What we know:
This protein is an alpha/beta fold and 248 residues long.
Amino acid sequence: MFELSHITKRYGSIDAVASVDLVTARGKTTVLIGPSGCGKSTLLRVMLGLITPEVGRVQFDGDTVSADSAMMLRRKMGYVIQDGGLFPHLTARGNATLLPRYLGWDVDRASKRLEELAELTQFPADGLDRYPAELSGGQRQRVGLIRSLMLDPDVLLMDEPLGALDPMIRSKLQEDLRAIFQRLGKTVVMVTHDLGECAYFADTIVLMRGGSIVQEGSFKDLVDSPTEDFVTEFVNAQRGVLTAMGEA
């Protein structure tokens, strides 16, 4: 789905992403993980075409992501950020139908799609006409997910989508998200800092450090076959997660 070749993105003298090569599989969930500042969110934004790398090429389903093509290609990509990223002056309905209105969908088409997605994401119908400040954190995140799915994108890109939620709401949303991924068969690229969340969602884990990919593979690969000491240190830092999952 995505093919990244030699991607480098610099800020001043710092390489936020340094010569990264990555291919994401269609219909699978790829999770980018690593310590703060490792480049995982920057890499996701490069995929979206929100950031232009100094070096390298991004291809999405065979098309090159560039300044000229990014706007059109983003219609095939759903983007979810922490806390939903909702506009406070728009209702949940207004936020969710923003792109369809921009693209000239008629009201009936947009309303039907919204109803389908509200049911899919278990968002209450009576919440659609509330403003973000009147919604819970979990509800705002569900609206963000609905908005990202309105155009039935080929891929979902998610940047710490559950990071701002309390543990109980987060656990419920994790269950619901995985069920939605499985039902829709979407290609997903997700950023998280949480190893347990990573293990829960990922078909492929991409562990980053200092703008580079340190190891790529399954959760079991990271635990049982670390490529360097940093991988072991990163896993051990969240050893309680592994113990709870029976992996320790």
